[in-house]
């Protein structure tokens, strides 16, 4: 029945195809395009044809019955000349280069066209067996895409297709991005679908442009058009003949199937007869089987009696074994009870105190200290802190919490499986409460000679540096954080004293590093500020010193090496006599004084080679024809010394001249206090020679003044005596 319906349906399709072909030959009417046609409308039209199950009819252009070009033409008559829609297009490209993000594009390969829906999907009227199909665009060998003539394609704005919103920009809908429009943010997925729809008015504001092209009208004087239509009609007739041949073949197939069904019926009757014969044979076989089973039942009964006897023997054997197990269990329980009684024996409890003969409490406290339950070392007295520590230990190790150290607690406490009570400590933490973990850590690191500063209870950079050095020496990741593993090693009685005690190494911080930096600056291996941190700059300076002193390059200096470094035997830098920015010392102060005497420098005589000193040195070098570097090499220092001495000599001559003048005035009885002050202020800078000359001049002036006063007073007395 179903086959007959298919044949009728195909016959109607063939007839419709032939009729349409004839109509085309008779009318030869071109299909016009409509100005109202849009790309999303064409895509929606194709989807509708697929969903409604339109049939394929060669040459069909009516609702529900179309061929490939008819699917497009039935949408407002768009597409141009049906036999060559690609030629009617104003814009096209190759599918192999990718299909643009544009809905309603035409797809073409020789002899066939389809509609691009978007998101990589297409619809086309395939053939009379498949009808209208919906498929991935790359599963069919499409060659070109094209803009369908007469269809308007959006340039910019919103469009709505199949209930989903898309935003076109510059002729294509956007994908995998977002846009904020009028304060609303829209997100577009890989198919270009917006997560929310815009206001309805936005769709009306879409900017369209028409993919139009001159639609070729058929040339009624051109025989090629008639020949093409004649060819199409002949193809339709040939297809109708093929359909008839197919129908006849199907009828022959049905006849063959009927003959096979008859043969099957006869075979079934023969099979039923065979089965009856087999049933009789089966009955006889069953009777023989029953006899055999009776014999086997007797044999089974005899075997069961033998099995019962065996089981009885095994039960007795099992009873004896269970009795033996019961006796062993009673023995085990007695031993367990004895063990528990032994574990319950008190080793130490509250107010116990060690004697000269026994150090049990000290042993317990030392182990609790090693495991982080006590922050203080052993005292030998079992006080409240020890009780609290024991209770914490028992709780963490799943022992009955009593605060009393019995045999069981003592055994676990002394074992290698005892659980520790260390919490991670890191920079910035401080002791806050009865427990003093940071203080205990600093005290222990002091004992092990990793920490040299005050015990403050604050986990600062110095503590972190000491922890880092311990971790490095004990092959633990050097993080500076005292994690439980690190603390367990630090507080262990087996922890070794710092093998580099008294020395300093890269990464450390503190007073010892400050002293190292100061000494390296004095020896001219380091410049800049003293930070107290053994950083990369300090390490580079240490390496320079080690190379100069003939030492192997290392990231640390031992106590013996530091002793030599701080002595007069320490090797100075090769640039020691060249002063530069960042250096400090008496020689820098002397240079500042000489620059000041020559009026190149007006700052403090600080002994620090700062930027002001660099500027003064550069000015001096420029004025004296030296290479301007800002660094005081030997030539610069020698020239500076010579110029400063020359300036001092000139100042001395001036002072002697002033002194002579003052002396003359003093003999004449004239007070020169103001002029003496002028002499003192002639050279206010700290030049050593100038200071000496000024001091000597001042003594001479005072002497002359005293002499003048004495002589004046003597003359006055003589005059007074004469008058009497």
| CATH class placement of the largest domain | Alpha Beta
Radius of gyration: 57 Å
Uncertain spans: 12-35, 213-226, 666-687
Q: What is the rounded distance between the termini?
A: 179 Å
The biggest sheet amounts to: 6 strands, antiparallel
Examine the secondary-structure arrangement and name the CATH architecture of the largest domain. Answer: Alpha-Beta Complex
- How many structural domains? 6
User: What order do the strands of the largest sheet run in, or round the barrel if closed?
Assistant: 4-9-5-6-7-8
CATH names the topology of the largest domain as endopeptidase fold (from Nostoc punctiforme)
The gross shape turns out to be flat
Share of residues in strands: 5-15%
**CATH homologous superfamily name of the largest domain?**
endopeptidase domain like (from Nostoc punctiforme)
Give average pLDDT, whole number.
82
Helix/strand/pairing class, anyone? alpha+beta
What percent of the residues sit in helical stretches (DSSP H or I)?
A: 40-55%
Annotation, overall tally of beta strands: 19
Q: In DSSP terms, counting alpha (H) and pi (I) runs of 4 or more, how many helices?
A: 20
């Amino acid at each position: 029945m179903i086959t007959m319906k298919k044949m009728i349906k195909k016959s109607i399709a063939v007839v419709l195809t032939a009729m349409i072909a004839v109509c085309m030959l008779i009318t030869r009417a071109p299909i016009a395009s409509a100005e109202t046609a849009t790309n999303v409308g064409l895509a929606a039209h194709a989807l509708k044809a697929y969903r409604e199950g339109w049939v394929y009819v060669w040459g069909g252009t009516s609702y529900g019955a179309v061929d490939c070009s008819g699917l497009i033409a039935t949408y407002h008559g768009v597409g141009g000349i049906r036999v060559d829609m690609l030629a009617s297009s104003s814009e096209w490209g190759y599918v192999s280069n990718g299909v643009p993000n544009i809905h309603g594009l035409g797809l073409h390969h020789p002899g066939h066209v389809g509609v691009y829906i978007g998101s990589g999907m297409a619809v086309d009227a395939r053939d009379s067996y498949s009808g209208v199909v919906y498929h991935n665009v790359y599963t069919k060998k499409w060659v070109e895409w094209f803009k369908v003539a007469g269809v308007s394609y959006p340039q910019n704005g919103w469009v709505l297709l199949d209930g989903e919103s898309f935003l076109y920009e510059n002729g294509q809908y956007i994908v995998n991005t977002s846009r904020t429009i009028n304060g609303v943010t829209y997100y577009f997925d890989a198919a270009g679908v917006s997560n929310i729809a815009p206001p309805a008015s936005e769709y009306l504001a879409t900017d369209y442009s028409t993919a139009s092209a001159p639609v070729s009208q058929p040339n009624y004087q051109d025989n090629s058009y008639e020949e093409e239509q004649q060819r199409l009609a002949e193809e339709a007739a040939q297809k109708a003949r093929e359909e008839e041949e197919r129908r006849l073949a199907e009828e022959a197939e049905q006849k063959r199937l009927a003959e096979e069904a008859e043969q099957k019926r006869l075979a079934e009757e023969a099979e039923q007869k065979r089965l009856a014969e087999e049933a009789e044979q089966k009955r006889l076989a069953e009777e023989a089987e029953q006899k055999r089973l009776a014999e086997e039942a007797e044999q089974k009964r005899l075997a069961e009696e033998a099995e019962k006897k065996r089981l009885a023997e095994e039960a007795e054997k099992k009873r004896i074994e269970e009795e033996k197990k019961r006796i062993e269990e009673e023995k085990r329980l007695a031993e367990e009870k004895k063990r528990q009684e032994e574990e319950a024996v008190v080793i130490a409890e509250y107010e116990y105190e060690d004697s000269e003969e026994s150090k049990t409490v000290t042993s317990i406290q030392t182990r609790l200290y090693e495991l982080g339950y006590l922050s203080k070392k052993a005292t030998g007295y079992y006080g409240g802190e020890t009780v609290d520590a024991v209770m914490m230990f028992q709780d963490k190790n799943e022992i009955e919490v009593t605060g009393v150290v019995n045999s069981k607690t003592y055994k676990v406490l002394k074992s290698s499986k005892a659980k520790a009570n260390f919490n991670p400590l890191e920079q910035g933490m401080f002791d806050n409460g009865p427990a003093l973990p940071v203080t205990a850590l600093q005290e222990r690191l002091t004992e092990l000679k990793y920490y040299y500063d005050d015990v403050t209870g604050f986990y600062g950079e110095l503590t972190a540096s000491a922890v880092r050095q311990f971790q490095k020496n004990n092959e633990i990741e050097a993080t500076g954080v005292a994690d439980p593993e690190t603390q367990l090693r630090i507080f262990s009685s087996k922890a070794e004293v710092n093998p580099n005690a008294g020395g300093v190494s890269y990464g450390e911080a503190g007073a010892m590093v400050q002293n190292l930096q100061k000494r390296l600056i004095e020896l001219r291996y380091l410049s800049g500020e003293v930070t107290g941190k053994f950083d990369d700059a300090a390490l580079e300076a240490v390496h320079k010193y080690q190379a100069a002193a003939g030492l192997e390059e290392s990231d640390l200096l031992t106590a013996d090496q530091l002793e030599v470094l701080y002595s007069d035997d320490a090797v100075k830098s090769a640039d020691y006599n060249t002063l530069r920015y960042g250096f400090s010392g008496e020689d820098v102060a002397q240079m500042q004084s000489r620059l000041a005497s020559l009026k190149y420098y007006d700052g403090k005589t600080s002994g620090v080679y700062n930027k002001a000193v660099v500027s003064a040195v550069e000015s001096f070098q420029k004025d004296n024809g030296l290479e301007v570097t800002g660094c005081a090499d030997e030539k610069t220092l020698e020239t500076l010394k010579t110029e400063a001495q020359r300036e001092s000599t000139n100042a001395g001559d001036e002072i002697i001249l002033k002194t002579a003048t003052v002396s003359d005035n003093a003999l004449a009885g004239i007070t020169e206090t103001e002029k003496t002050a002028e002499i003192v202020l002639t050279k206010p800078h700290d030049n050593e020679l100038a200071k000496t000359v000024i001091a000597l001049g001042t003594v001479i002036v005072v002497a002359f003044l005293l002499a003048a006063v004495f002589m004046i007073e003597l003359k006055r007395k003589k005059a007074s005596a004469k008058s009497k």
